[in-house]
Amino acid sequence: MPPMESPRTVSVQKFMTLERHIIEGESRHPDATGDFSGLLHSMSLAAKLVWREVTKAGLVNILGKTDRTNTSGDEVKKLDEFADETVFRAMDHGGHLCVMASEEHEDLLHIPANYPAGKYVLLYDPLDGSGNIDANVTIGTIFSVYRRVTAAGPGTIQDVLQPGFRQVAAGYILFGSSMMFVYTTGHGVHGFTLDPTVGEFLLSHENIRIPKRGHIYSTNEGNVGRWDPRMQAYVRWLKEEDKADGRPYSLRYIGSLVADVHRTLLYGGVYFYPGDTKNPDGKLRLMYENNPLAFIVEQAGGKSSNGVIRTLDLMPTSLHQRMPLYIGSEEDVTIAEEFLAGKR
Ligand code: FDP
After folding, report:
1. What is the pLDDT of residue 131?
2. 291 contacts 167 by C-beta, under 8 angstroms
3. Sheet with 216-218, side-by-side order of all strands
4. Is 74 an annotated catalytic residue?
5. Taking Cα atoms as reference points, which of 153, 151, 148, 86 lies closest to residue 121?
6. Whole-angstrom distance, CA of residue 333 vs CA of residue 305
């Protein structure tokens, strides 16, 4: 008789929760105060609260537009507002932050005077891809953390307008078929998936590495007629048949930046949102979208630029400035830059 199969298999892998991962990461720094762990922990709490609302979106009457637009001219939906407030309220009182900035607000978000000011700065896009909410498509929260540059007291615009290479952490939370928390503190990129039965994020994607070259391009090609002819030539090249070179590329465009970049991180390839004749700087926001995603993709071995200059080296001039974005596999971004420079 064959041996009876055990009804349950016991995994020998250790469970690594997000919290434990953050604490173990911080313990590498002997002078760490625990501030940073506290900050990321609060962020994960905000994520769970937003997720709870996102999963209820079709059930309660929370979908639908409010009657205002945000500072970037986009329609603001109720879930955007909920996410925006939730992140702020989860982060305002921990004593970790001196100031925040959200894509949904024109001005800085100050820490209430009755709470202590800390040494970090948080920038966030509360619900990226919100145009997709009604269609039940993956959306997400993107965040970026800097160390303050002013000495003390309430944070100022100087603390916020720092180039991306100064980020100390960045991450995104994906609200998709499952919820994922992906983050970097400059020591690789790690992804955690929420186990809803226990309410914990468990390490599911350790040390994510993006392929050096991929076979997918991701862009809103509907705008091609407004692009620079060199950009148009690049897209024609991507579609040409050349088996040895892995062409034609496949086109995948969700229209949620955070989801398109997440797929690019896992499968490789390139995402781009170029400038065009209507919007010379493109659509995406340097401080809330490009910088955090560039930090993550670089940490995974990829590349990000505005077509010419490395994203993380760009000096920001205003909170909501837009910037073209070319991001993904190192070789793919380099090829796009070569086309833009007229070298191909
Ligand atoms: P959304 O306006 O739905 O929040 O920058 C915001 C963004 O979505 C990105 O997430 C998305 O990739 C992009 O805009 C989509 O822009 P297009 O509709 O022009 O493709």
Report:
1. 86
2. yes
3. 250-251, 216-218, 270-273, 325-328, 303-305
4. yes
5. 148
6. 8
